[in-house]
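Before a colleague's protein record goes any further, I have to sign it off. Alongside the sequence sits a line of tokens, each denoting a local backbone shape. I want your independent view on whether this chain really folds as the tokens say. Where you disagree with what is written, explain briefly why. This is what I was given:
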Amino acid sequence: MEEVTAQESIQTSGEFERQPVPTSQLKDWRKFLGMYAGEHAAGTEFVIGPLFLTAGVSAFDLIVGLLVGNFLAVLTWRYITTPIATSERLTLYYKLEKISGRKLVTGYNLANGLLFCFLAGAMITVSATAVGIPFDMPMPALTDRMPTSISWVLVVLGVGAVISIVAAKGYDAVSKFSNIAAPWMVLVFLIAGIVAAKRLGVSSLDDLWAVWGSGSEPFPGQIKFTFWHVTAFAWFCNAAMHLGMSDLSVLRYADRNSVGWTSAAGMYVGHYMAWISACLMFALYLKSPEAEAILAGGGVPPVAPGPLSYEVVGISGLVCVLVAGWTTANPTIYRAGLAFQAIFPKSFTTKVTLATGAIATIAGLFPAFAMKLLDFVAVYGFILAPIGAVIFFEHYFAERLGMVRNYAAAKGIGFNMAVLAAWLISMGVFYTISVQQGVFLSFFTLPAWIACGVLYLVFSKILQKK
């Protein structure tokens, strides 16, 4: 059988994995608005919103913390990620290969792809809780780690198959799906929040404070969230995508830097309105006889998006949960597929993405990824964000310091030790401090990012001088 070259793969797939996106393929802000709104007003919101309540957060800390944290995230997308994306027009994975070398980037791409698969798996879990309602499927509890039933396994496999097929059709299919679904999902989130608030007796901010007040003690196994926890989480829950430069892979299609502002559609529609709506839905559930009985017995009420939304807005809520999971998992699987594509450049993108979807579906069988989403998102952002600092600091400072840009490609080496040392040291130091001092990991994402960038410049200066 004749060998398929990397260039032939590019021409067949049309995804430009190993070359800059040509001017003819650039897209305006409308293509990104729906994608960001759909991706971030999505399945995770049905889980993260309730998890804030399990952390005992107060109304003020949540509402104001999300306002500030999401604004900082939008600024990061606009001024950190987008200018590099429109300048280089390369995927994260190919750009990183040019800096760090083929051998080193293979390990990073494997870690990146697997973490995105686990995140997509959590979204498949979310969608499955909606599909399982008509079949009276047992829902996973907050403490569940393993598959809970045969029906659960079958539903997850079915949902995962559909999501993987859409993702495998490429960026245009992902963007089109998000643009169609996003407006309707946003409306359902808004209505669900309003209905839940009214059933809680909330018609003003004073009422909200009376219902929510200063928060509560966190559920067993959860830490107490304050204003600073909420702000840091909102800013860095997507750190892998903005600080970590993963969104180079999608923003390389942007026709101008102002496209970066479209991330606000995801932050304020999804990570603000949708999270608060989901909080209100869970607050309503906590007042039900079922939840009160579980709490009285020392148990932890389940955080299952399907039943929560069905209780508030009926069938439309179930459909929203199902579609919301799709719109998050689709671009996530697409990103993971690009990571694996960089490891196997001679493979067709469609086949790689389908295999990626299969890994995500298997991850979706395990409820732990969704039920521990706050912790998982903090960890995956912390791990992947620092490597983006290598790209950022090189882009802006390498030439000023007399260093060679894209060092691995320029010198024909497969392993740039400066990248690995900077990444491991920055992660290792701050992760150790977080564990030993019991400090929320998201507080260390930005310090680790800055440290990695500075260390990379120092180590590179020494290496290139030698």
In short: The chain is about 70% helix and 0% strand. The CA atoms of residues 55 and 221 lie 9 Å apart. The mean pLDDT is 81.
